[in-house]
Amino acid sequence: MSWTPLTEDDYARTVSDLRGRCITGVTYYPLARGDERTEVEDWDFGDWHLPTMGVELLVDSSTRFSAVWGHSFDYHGLEIYPGPVSAHLGMIGQPGGTPQAPVTGHPAWSGIIDTPLVGIEVHWSEGAYGRRLPLAVALSTQTCTTWLVAGAPARWPADGRFHLGTDDAMVVFTRTLAIAIGLTPEPQ
Asked: What's the sign of the alpha-carbon dihedral 9, 11, 14, 18?
């Protein structure tokens, strides 16, 4: 695995390549637990999920995109790459590595699976040193929006407060939560 930092132009090209396409599969890469570190840690918290290490999107049944937290722009942003998550994470499915959790059939993803993406919006924030930082990407169909986010609960157990720009991948499924987190403005 080699790492090449993204530029804003790379990011824009990759994200725009999703527009008009259909997500046909989703796999999470959460943390592991247990003595052998092979059991999948809890990731389903209702209107948000915490796949911590990343999300892999299968698009049009053949192309893979990876959403992982990273540091191309500053610590820690949500980075979208063409290609599989295995290009960014090691030891997948091995003891001490990250497990895979296929979630294509999960009800929270039902409004976006096999439906053309009509809108893709990157939520940028000012990072340290005056550099812009991609905190989230909103994937929209005609009927719903799902946010891929670099973020996590502010404390455990989760109490409704979240931090953005953490070394965690998170998925948000409701506009109400996206507004509360600061990913989208409140309707006027």
From this structure: negative
| pTM, 2 dp | 0.92
Work out the angle at residue 30's Cα, subtended by the Cα atoms of residues 69 and 161, and round it to the nearest 5 degrees. 70
Residue carrying structure tokens 């725009």? 16
Three-state DSSP class for 167? strand
Asked if residues 39 and 68 have their Cβ atoms less than 8 Å apart, the reply is: no
Q: What is the pLDDT along the chain (188 residues), one digit of tens a residue?
A: 556 778 889 999 999 999 999 999 999 999 888 777 777 889 999 999 999 999 999 999 899 999 998 887 777 889 999 999 888 878 888 888 889 999 999 999 999 999 999 999 999 987 666 778 899 999 999 999 999 999 999 998 889 899 998 999 999 999 999 999 999 877 65
Spatial distance between the Cα atoms of 3 and 8, rounded to a whole number of angstroms: 16
